[in-house]
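Key result, reporting period 2: structure in, sequence out.
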Protein backbone atom coordinates (compact mmCIF):
# COMPACT_ATOMS: atom_id res chain seq x y z
CA UNK A 1 0.00 0.00 0.00
CA UNK A 2 1.32 3.41 -0.98
CA UNK A 3 1.18 5.95 1.83
CA UNK A 4 -1.38 8.67 0.93
CA UNK A 5 0.26 11.96 0.01
CA UNK A 6 -2.75 14.02 -1.08
CA UNK A 7 -6.32 14.62 0.05
CA UNK A 8 -7.76 12.50 -2.79
CA UNK A 9 -5.45 9.57 -2.05
CA UNK A 10 -6.33 9.86 1.63
CA UNK A 11 -10.06 9.82 0.86
CA UNK A 12 -9.72 6.76 -1.36
CA UNK A 13 -7.66 4.99 1.30
CA UNK A 14 -10.27 5.61 4.00
CA UNK A 15 -13.04 4.29 1.76
CA UNK A 16 -10.99 1.18 1.01
CA UNK A 17 -10.59 0.62 4.75
CA UNK A 18 -14.38 0.40 4.93
CA UNK A 19 -14.63 -2.09 2.07
CA UNK A 20 -14.80 -0.06 -1.14
CA UNK A 21 -15.00 -0.91 -3.99
CA UNK A 22 -16.07 -4.43 -3.01
CA UNK A 23 -18.81 -2.98 -0.79
CA UNK A 24 -20.91 -0.02 -1.81
CA UNK A 25 -20.29 2.70 0.81
CA UNK A 26 -23.57 4.62 0.97
CA UNK A 27 -22.01 7.98 1.71
CA UNK A 28 -22.12 11.00 -0.57
CA UNK A 29 -18.79 12.43 -1.74
CA UNK A 30 -19.52 15.74 -0.03
CA UNK A 31 -20.27 13.91 3.20
CA UNK A 32 -16.87 12.23 2.95
CA UNK A 33 -15.23 15.62 2.45
CA UNK A 34 -17.06 16.95 5.52
CA UNK A 35 -15.86 14.04 7.65
CA UNK A 36 -12.26 14.61 6.51
CA UNK A 37 -12.53 18.26 7.53
CA UNK A 38 -14.04 17.23 10.87
CA UNK A 39 -11.16 14.83 11.52
CA UNK A 40 -8.60 17.47 10.60
CA UNK A 41 -10.16 19.95 13.04
CA UNK A 42 -9.90 17.43 15.87
CA UNK A 43 -6.36 16.51 14.82
CA UNK A 44 -5.22 20.15 14.87
CA UNK A 45 -6.81 20.84 18.23
CA UNK A 46 -5.28 17.91 20.12
CA UNK A 47 -2.40 16.23 18.27
CA UNK A 48 1.08 17.53 19.05
CA UNK A 49 1.91 17.32 15.33
CA UNK A 50 -1.23 19.22 14.33
CA UNK A 51 0.28 22.64 15.00
CA UNK A 52 3.69 24.27 14.96
CA UNK A 53 5.20 27.31 16.58
CA UNK A 54 5.67 30.14 14.11
CA UNK A 55 7.14 33.63 14.03
CA UNK A 56 5.06 35.67 11.62
CA UNK A 57 6.30 38.98 10.28
CA UNK A 58 3.70 41.69 9.71
CA UNK A 59 4.16 45.15 8.25
CA UNK A 60 2.01 47.84 9.81
CA UNK A 61 -0.36 49.50 7.36
CA UNK A 62 -2.63 52.52 7.54
CA UNK A 63 -5.57 50.11 7.75
CA UNK A 64 -4.10 48.51 10.87
CA UNK A 65 -3.68 51.91 12.52
CA UNK A 66 -7.23 52.94 11.63
CA UNK A 67 -8.72 49.63 12.84
CA UNK A 68 -6.45 49.42 15.91
CA UNK A 69 -5.97 45.71 15.29
CA UNK A 70 -4.03 43.44 12.96
CA UNK A 71 -5.70 40.88 10.73
CA UNK A 72 -3.82 37.59 10.94
CA UNK A 73 -4.00 34.54 8.65
CA UNK A 74 -6.69 31.93 9.24
CA UNK A 75 -3.98 29.34 9.90
CA UNK A 76 -2.91 31.12 13.10
CA UNK A 77 -4.81 29.55 16.02
CA UNK A 78 -2.94 31.02 18.97
CA UNK A 79 -0.70 33.98 19.77
CA UNK A 80 1.46 34.11 22.89
CA UNK A 81 3.14 37.49 22.44
CA UNK A 82 4.58 40.02 20.07
CA UNK A 83 8.29 40.62 20.15
CA UNK A 84 9.20 44.02 21.67
CA UNK A 85 9.33 46.87 19.20
CA UNK A 86 12.55 48.16 20.77
CA UNK A 87 14.82 46.54 23.32
CA UNK A 88 17.77 47.54 25.42
CA UNK A 89 19.26 44.17 24.52
CA UNK A 90 20.04 45.45 21.05
CA UNK A 91 23.73 46.37 20.70
CA UNK A 92 23.58 48.25 17.44
CA UNK A 93 24.19 51.82 18.68
CA UNK A 94 26.96 53.53 20.67
CA UNK A 95 24.59 54.79 23.36
CA UNK A 96 22.92 51.44 23.95
CA UNK A 97 23.35 49.83 27.38
CA UNK A 98 24.35 46.46 26.00
CA UNK A 99 26.87 48.11 23.70
CA UNK A 100 28.48 49.75 26.70
CA UNK A 101 28.59 46.44 28.57
CA UNK A 102 30.42 44.92 25.62
CA UNK A 103 32.78 47.87 25.33
CA UNK A 104 33.72 48.29 29.00
CA UNK A 105 33.47 44.85 30.59
CA UNK A 106 33.99 42.11 28.00
CA UNK A 107 36.85 42.64 25.64
CA UNK A 108 37.55 38.94 25.33
CA UNK A 109 34.99 36.23 26.11
CA UNK A 110 37.75 33.62 26.39
CA UNK A 111 39.58 35.57 29.10
CA UNK A 112 36.67 36.91 31.15
CA UNK A 113 33.88 35.18 33.05
CA UNK A 114 30.46 35.44 31.45
CA UNK A 115 28.73 35.50 34.84
CA UNK A 116 28.90 39.30 35.33
CA UNK A 117 27.82 39.75 31.71
CA UNK A 118 24.82 37.49 32.16
CA UNK A 119 23.84 39.12 35.45
CA UNK A 120 24.13 42.59 33.95
CA UNK A 121 21.88 41.71 31.00
CA UNK A 122 19.40 39.99 33.30
CA UNK A 123 19.27 43.16 35.41
CA UNK A 124 18.73 45.29 32.29
CA UNK A 125 15.90 42.99 31.16
CA UNK A 126 14.27 43.29 34.59
CA UNK A 127 14.44 47.08 34.52
CA UNK A 128 13.04 47.17 30.99
CA UNK A 129 10.19 44.84 31.98
CA UNK A 130 9.47 46.91 35.11
CA UNK A 131 9.45 50.37 33.55
CA UNK A 132 8.43 49.58 29.96
CA UNK A 133 6.80 46.16 29.95
CA UNK A 134 5.35 44.20 27.07
CA UNK A 135 2.42 45.36 24.99
CA UNK A 136 -0.78 43.64 26.20
CA UNK A 137 -2.47 41.64 23.45
CA UNK A 138 -5.88 40.08 22.89
CA UNK A 139 -6.60 37.41 20.29
CA UNK A 140 -9.37 34.98 19.42
CA UNK A 141 -8.86 32.35 16.72
CA UNK A 142 -12.42 32.79 15.41
CA UNK A 143 -12.07 36.53 14.71
CA UNK A 144 -8.54 36.41 13.24
CA UNK A 145 -7.83 39.79 14.82
CA UNK A 146 -4.85 40.64 17.01
CA UNK A 147 -5.60 43.57 19.31
CA UNK A 148 -2.56 45.33 20.78
CA UNK A 149 -3.40 47.63 23.68
CA UNK A 150 -1.23 50.63 22.89
CA UNK A 151 -1.38 54.10 21.41
CA UNK A 152 -1.53 53.32 17.71
CA UNK A 153 -0.78 56.95 16.81
CA UNK A 154 2.57 57.16 18.58
CA UNK A 155 3.81 53.67 19.44
CA UNK A 156 4.08 52.40 15.86
CA UNK A 157 4.66 53.87 12.42
CA UNK A 158 3.25 52.79 9.09
CA UNK A 159 5.71 50.51 7.32
CA UNK A 160 7.24 49.22 10.55
CA UNK A 161 7.46 45.46 11.03
CA UNK A 162 6.38 43.53 14.10
CA UNK A 163 6.99 39.86 14.84
CA UNK A 164 4.07 37.75 16.07
CA UNK A 165 4.95 34.70 18.16
CA UNK A 166 2.22 32.09 17.96
CA UNK A 167 1.01 28.74 16.64
CA UNK A 168 -0.38 27.78 13.26
CA UNK A 169 -2.05 24.64 11.98
CA UNK A 170 -0.39 22.06 9.79
CA UNK A 171 -2.61 21.94 6.72
CA UNK A 172 -2.88 19.56 3.80
CA UNK A 173 -0.12 21.30 1.87
CA UNK A 174 2.28 19.21 3.97
CA UNK A 175 1.90 15.80 2.32
CA UNK A 176 3.05 13.85 5.39
CA UNK A 177 -0.19 14.80 7.15
CA UNK A 178 -2.16 12.47 4.89
CA UNK A 179 0.03 9.54 5.91
CA UNK A 180 -0.79 9.81 9.62
CA UNK A 181 -2.21 6.47 10.82
CA UNK A 182 -4.33 7.90 13.64
CA UNK A 183 -5.91 10.43 11.29
CA UNK A 184 -6.78 7.69 8.79
CA UNK A 185 -8.41 5.54 11.48
CA UNK A 186 -10.37 8.45 12.91
CA UNK A 187 -11.58 9.64 9.50
CA UNK A 188 -12.63 6.10 8.56
CA UNK A 189 -14.62 5.80 11.78
CA UNK A 190 -16.35 9.13 11.09
CA UNK A 191 -17.28 7.98 7.58
CA UNK A 192 -18.51 4.68 9.00
CA UNK A 193 -20.77 6.50 11.45
CA UNK A 194 -22.09 8.66 8.60
CA UNK A 195 -22.70 5.48 6.58
CA UNK A 196 -24.75 3.99 9.39
CA UNK A 197 -26.66 7.24 9.85
CA UNK A 198 -27.55 7.29 6.15
CA UNK A 199 -28.83 3.71 6.31
CA UNK A 200 -30.85 4.28 9.47
CA UNK A 201 -33.95 5.20 7.45
CA UNK A 202 -33.93 1.62 6.11
CA UNK A 203 -33.64 0.11 9.61
CA UNK A 204 -35.57 -3.16 9.77
CA UNK A 205 -36.37 -3.19 6.04
CA UNK A 206 -36.18 -6.72 4.68
CA UNK A 207 -34.37 -7.33 1.40
CA UNK A 208 -34.78 -10.29 -0.96
CA UNK A 209 -33.39 -13.39 0.72
CA UNK A 210 -34.43 -12.29 4.20
CA UNK A 211 -31.51 -9.88 4.74
CA UNK A 212 -32.32 -6.85 6.88
CA UNK A 213 -30.49 -3.59 7.49
CA UNK A 214 -28.84 -3.13 10.87
CA UNK A 215 -27.77 0.50 10.70
CA UNK A 216 -27.82 0.99 14.48
CA UNK A 217 -25.14 -1.67 14.87
CA UNK A 218 -22.97 0.12 12.30
CA UNK A 219 -23.37 3.41 14.14
CA UNK A 220 -22.56 1.89 17.54
CA UNK A 221 -19.45 0.16 16.17
CA UNK A 222 -18.24 3.41 14.65
CA UNK A 223 -18.92 5.35 17.85
CA UNK A 224 -16.99 2.78 19.89
CA UNK A 225 -14.04 3.13 17.52
CA UNK A 226 -14.20 6.93 17.80
CA UNK A 227 -14.24 6.78 21.59
CA UNK A 228 -11.16 4.54 21.65
CA UNK A 229 -9.32 6.75 19.17
CA UNK A 230 -10.14 9.91 21.12
CA UNK A 231 -8.92 8.26 24.31
CA UNK A 232 -5.75 7.24 22.48
CA UNK A 233 -5.32 10.83 21.33
CA UNK A 234 -5.59 12.21 24.87
CA UNK A 235 -3.24 9.66 26.39
CA UNK A 236 -0.66 9.27 23.62
CA UNK A 237 -0.63 12.21 21.24
CA UNK A 238 -1.70 15.30 23.17
CA UNK A 239 0.72 17.57 24.99
CA UNK A 240 0.20 17.85 28.76
CA UNK A 241 -1.72 20.83 30.07
CA UNK A 242 0.57 23.48 31.53
CA UNK A 243 -0.58 25.60 34.46
CA UNK A 244 -0.62 29.35 33.93
CA UNK A 245 0.46 31.52 36.84
CA UNK A 246 -0.08 35.25 36.99
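The corresponding designed sequence is given below.
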Amino acid sequence: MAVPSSRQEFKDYCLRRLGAPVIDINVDDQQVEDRIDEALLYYRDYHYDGTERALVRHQITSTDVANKYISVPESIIGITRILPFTSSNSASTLFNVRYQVHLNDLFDFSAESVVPYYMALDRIALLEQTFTGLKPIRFNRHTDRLYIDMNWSTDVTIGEYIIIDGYRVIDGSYTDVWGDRWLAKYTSALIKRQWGSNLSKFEGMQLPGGVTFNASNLVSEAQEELNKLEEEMMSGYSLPVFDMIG
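The first strand starts at residue 51 and ends at 59. The first helix runs from residue 7 to 17. This case is discussed further under Risks and Mitigation.
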